[in-house]
Amino acid sequence: MPVASDRGPAPAPAILEALELFEANRRPGEPDVEPGYLDLLGAQDPTGGGLGQRLMVSRLLPLVYQRFWRPVGTRLLMGVAGPGAGEERRLALEMLSISPGDRVLDVACGPGNFTRDFARAAGESLVVGVDASPTMLGVAVRETEGANVAYVRGDACDLPFRDSSFDAVCCFAALYLIEEPIRALEEIVRVLAPGGRVALLTSCGRGPLSAPAANSIVRTLSGVRIFGRDELTRALADRGLVDVEQRVTGLAQFVSGSCPLAG
Ligand SMILES: C[S@@+](CC[C@H](N)C(=O)[O-])C[C@H]1O[C@@H](n2cnc3c(N)ncnc32)[C@H](O)[C@@H]1O
Description:
Layout: H1 13-20, E1 38-39, H2 51-56, H3 61-78, H4 85-96, E2 104-107, H5 115-121, E3 127-131, H6 134-143, E4 149-153, E5 166-172, H7 181-190, E6 192-203, H8 211-222, H9 231-238, E7 242-249, E8 252-258
């Protein structure tokens, strides 16, 4: 049982396990775990200034995110015929094919709405949720019971983990809000172990709403980026991933891929 010291609470075992995956020069001397997650950012805020990004770090939105915002946003993005919440969870688990013993990273995990599913699928193995929003992570910590889950407040574009640390990496409903999405994608690929799987859910420009045209309006108004139809599949393939697959629904795309086995 971790013991509190003068410097605040001692890190929980899952946070200690996560710290072991850090690059040596990224391990904080005195980890700040006071809020229940490991805070690597302190006063820094790498999320952008757009409306969508500001909402994610606000006090109110994280409180209503899972029950109201996410279901409504999903419908708008995926269309009425798109997958519902249960189907989306099933898709995530299928794309990542997590089994007990797999180490899982949930990038931009928000309130941990998918992280908790991954924790159940991974058995006793470590599942890490990274997000930049203290208010989102506050909800995640409050609603997560799994002893195998560690939450880290960090930047998706500058992950602290060593190369090949995870067997499965998810990034759902976030790349379109991340300021430098291709950098985040490179980080995701970097921390993926040989044979590991990646699953993404993000926006997809279609028909008259081509990505550059849409971005000039949507991104300017909301901070949300619209990706080109092949932009992410190509980006993953160019970075060496194999079995890259895409499923487009409404203005959203699910993308999955695997890191080739070594040798
Ligand atoms: C819409 S939520 C997605 C939450 C969850 N993955 C889901 O599918 O519902 C987007 C999250 O991305 C996070 N985010 C945005 N930019 C980030 C960055 N640079 N690094 C880490 N998290 C970031 C926000 O704080 C927010 O919690």
